[in-house]
Specification:
Length: 286
């Protein structure tokens, strides 16, 4: 009997869900497969080394991949080629992580869906497809409200001497104060976005401090003003969020939405469960 493999891939990690013929699901995790940051050889090596799925044993008939970095047909073709080569499966679909988030959060309902994880993105989804989407400019130019955006603020506050003594000491104890080392990792590391996003942990550990709260709130205001509030449908339908950053700081999202007069929808740490539910329902319909 055949199985279906669903992948939700961000820049930091990929969650794999293997749905068997009995609808029981097995879960796996690997580092992210973002075509912007990895070559074909990198991706194949990662799958060989990290993904503990035996393609022949599991009899996979179809793979549905949702990924950060899958923005055009070229990237979709790139990912599909890699998955076909590794798994030996003919039926492979590669979609944007935005479509995956929308399906996970809303199923067949209308609404605004936002991703706030390592990166950020948003769209208006009509229950079947994405109808409008602001461009995602990546962590150097955009990614407002994301882990990388917050991480940059943490570094700025420390090295520009904006943090008070308490937070400066806490930062120094956790990360040191070697500016040259940090700049090297930011500007030389091919996965600099993940490195920057790692500094959101510092914010999580110091919730309640007014400077920390200001950093998070300012970042979320930037995201809403540049993205959410640009959709006229934001005042007609719920606003849903997917991603660790949204989930960890959801209290600030609720507060902002109260101020803006917006309806808050689902706030999910990961789209995995929602995607499993969506595709199981699709299987039952077919």
């Amino acid at each position: 009997m055949s199985s279906i493999l669903i992948a939700d891939s961000g820049s930091s990690k990929t969650d794999w869900s293997l749905i068997g013929s009995n609808h029981k699901t097995k879960h796996f995790q690997t580092p992210g497969l973002n075509p912007f940051f990895r070559t074909e050889a990198d991706c194949l090596q990662l799958l060989n080394d990290e993904l503990k799925i035996n393609p022949k044993k599991e009899s996979i008939s179809k793979i549905i991949f949702y990924g950060a970095g899958v923005k055009t047909k070229n990237e979709a073709d790139f990912v599909e080629k890699i998955l076909k080569k590794h798994f030996g499966v003919k039926k492979v679909e590669a979609h944007s992580d935005m479509l995956g988030a929308a399906r996970a959060a809303m199923g067949d309902k209308k609404g605004i869906c936002c991703i706030l994880g390592t990166g950020s993105n948003s769209c208006y989804y009509n229950g079947k497809k994405i109808m409008q989407q602001n461009p995602s400019l990546g962590f150097i130019i955009g990614d407002e409200g994301s882990g990388t955006y917050l991480g940059k603020r943490v570094l700025q506050y420390f090295f520009y001497n904006t943090f008070d003594d308490e937070l400066r000491e806490a930062f120094r104890n956790k990360y040191g104060d070697d500016l040259s080392d940090i700049l090297k990792k930011v500007y030389k590391d091919p996965l600099a976005n993940r490195y920057l996003a790692s500094f959101t942990q510092f914010l999580m550990e110091h919730r309640g401090h007014y400077m920390v709260e200001n950093i998070i709130e300012d970042a979320f205001i930037d995201f809403h003003q540049r993205h959410v509030l640009k959709y006229r449908e934001s005042w007609k339908h719920p606003i849903h969020f997917i991603g660790t950053v949204a989930y960890e700081f959801k209290d600030i999202i609720y507060s902002l939405h109260e101020q803006y007069g917006l309806e808050t929808g689902n706030i999910m740490k990961s789209p995995a469960e929602g995607l499993i539910k969506f595709h199981k329902e699709e299987l039952e319909k077919s």
